[in-house]
Amino acid sequence: MRRSWNPRLWTGFALVLVGVLSYPFFFVRFPVTRDFPWANFLLLAFAVFLLLTGLLRAFRQSQAYRGKLSGTILASLSAVLVGLFLFVIFYMARQLPGSRGAPAIGQIAPDFTLPDENGSVVTLSTLLNSAFITNDWPSSPGSGDARGKTAGALLIFYRGYW
């Protein structure tokens, strides 16, 4: 009797590769899967199920299915990949340094000078003391134009790990 190929082993290993590699290249783009990679966990759980059933099939029905050696190797590689994925997701991602020196909400920012989107230098103090013109707000009757002093500036800090 000729032994047949065991597709569960290879499909399970392929799904482990897809589950591990799809998070940094695809699922990290969406907030619903970036914060907690539930879609990757579902893929990995199904892949482990396929690998285990493929291994059981290879060892229990060895006269009908191949895969004792290759299944053991694929399952071992898959266990290492899943373990590394879990290590990176649950441990390494939490090891970013704390933001002790970051300004708090509502804190007055120190004066600074930075280039704007056009490349010209802008200082915070001159920005706050300058008048601005807006065409979005209707001017009050008799005021002429909508000039006024800037009431404040909204500063957005993107915390990154560069």
Short structural description:
This protein has five helices and four strands; from the N terminus they run ααααββαββ. The chain is mostly helical. The chain folds into two domains: 7-94, no CATH class; 99-162, no CATH class.
Distance between the termini: 60 Å
> Level of helix content?
40-55%
What percentage of the residues does DSSP assign to strands (E)?
5-15%
Put simply, the count of helices is 5
Structural class: mainly alpha
Widest beta sheet: strand line-up: 1-2
| Backbone CA Rg | 29 Å
Along the chain, the helix and strand elements come as HHHHEEHEE
**Shape annotation:** rod-shaped
Unreliable spans: none
Oligomerization state: single chain
Structural overview:
The protein has helices at residues 7-25, 31-34, 38-60, 68-90, 124-129; strands at residues 113-115, 121-123, 131-133, 147-149. With 162 residues, the protein is mainly alpha-helical. The termini are far apart. The strands form 2 sheets. Strands 1-2 form a two-stranded antiparallel ribbon. A two-stranded antiparallel ribbon has the order 3-4. The model has no long low-confidence stretch (mean pLDDT 82). The protein has 2 domains: 7-94, no CATH class; 99-162, no CATH class.
Distinctive features:
2 domains; two-stranded antiparallel sheet; 5 helices
Task: Please outline the helices and strands.
Blueprint (H helix, E strand, L loop, with lengths): L6 H19 L5 H4 L3 H23 L7 H23 L22 E3 L5 E3 H6 L1 E3 L13 E3 L13
Antiparallel strand pairs: 1-2, 3-4
Helix pairs in contact: 1-3, 1-4, 3-4
